[in-house]
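Posting this for the archive.
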Amino acid sequence: MDRVETFQRIKKKIDMLPLFDSDIFKIIALLDDKDSDFEQIINNLSPGIAAKFLSVANSSYYGQEIKSINHALRVLGFNGMKNILVTSILYDQYCDDVVHKYFNVSKFHLEARFCVIVSSVIGKIFEYNQPEKLFTVALVHDIGKLVVAANFTDEIQKINEIKDSKKMPSRKAELEVLGVPHSIIGAYLLKKMKISRDIYYAVAQHEEKKPIVSEKGDYRLVLILREASIIINRYFLPNEKKLLEIFEKLNAMARTVQGNFQQNFRKAMLENGQMAAFKQQLPFIRDFIFKELGDNLEERFYPAA
């Protein structure tokens, strides 16, 4: 079976996935409807769906406490709430189907949280004003890996064997076996589930050496996620306790450098325009984070991505 045929099988499998139950679709439809109001959504949320949503939204890495569904709607808005709700359900659906012999779900969750931490710190330094989008995109950036692991046991086994035997990054092994990287598979799934275009596009681009961005789209989301992905793939994953320590240290670093950085960033914007200035400043942020992480984590011998 060639790689094009393999990707067609993946797309067909995604297209045939059981859709969310009617209660969840009803909530998503309400969140998509600009004429909906807070009361309608709150009254239609079952306790189970509400608990699922709040468990994700209240991750200690999100950066603020979501006290209730009412609070979530006011803080996140309809679209932000929909993105996090769909993310939480996709996680549950795929994690239940994974053969753990070939895919480490705990490691997958840990890597997602590591990406959330690094993305949020970059976002804070740049004063990116949509943290809920950044949280969601970092959480789902590798969901394509989960899709493959849950539905294609033979392929995930081959990918792991190639990575180990050839010391090959995941992306190259995926291309060899599947014909496409997990980023494209993940974006295809998120698009099908009607996640915001900015989010699924950022997921599709997060491993590209030269991501395609435009000032018409949310180029900041794409570039922050790509930068975070580069950074986290340089290191072996820390444990949960260490991750929380890193979270605190990176936030302290962000508070220290933010003032001077913003002055330089504004100057660069005046000289070169917003998007060019954003691209120019990212390497400086990367160096700050590398310096902080280098004192706490062990580097990989070859990149994981």
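The chain has a mean pLDDT of 82. The chain has one domain: 3-294.
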